[in-house]
Specification:
about 100 residues, mainly alpha, about 75% helix, transmembrane, membrane
């Protein structure tokens, strides 16, 4: 039952969001404080919004593949979220933004 939800449209979207959060966590582990990261979110709202939109587009593209009978791959959707956040949100550790 849980696996069915995870492979559903909304489950895959949640996995993509978890991928974005994993990238956020990686930045925190590397020494960037959460305040600096949240300041980046406020100061670079367009870039953050673009990362979220790109994740949604990747999710929609993947869901459209499912219509053709392709097997859902949770790791691919996780990677979409991680990749989009990593690509569009470049944090500057020295300036805290």
């Amino acid at each position: 039952m849980e696996l069915q939800f995870l492979l559903s449209k909304y489950g895959l979207l949640i996995v993509a969001a978890i991928g974005m959060m994993a990238h956020f966590l990686k930045k925190k582990i590397k020494g960037e404080n959460a305040g600096a990261i949240f300041n980046y979110f406020k100061n670079h709202f367009r870039t953050v919004a673009l990362a979220v939109i790109a994740t949604w587009v990747g999710w929609l593209g993947y869901i459209s593949l499912l219509v053709t009978g392709q097997v859902a791959d949770v790791f691919a959707v996780f990677a979409i979220g991680y990749l989009c956040d990593s690509f569009f949100n470049k944090y500057d550790k020295q300036n805290g933004v």
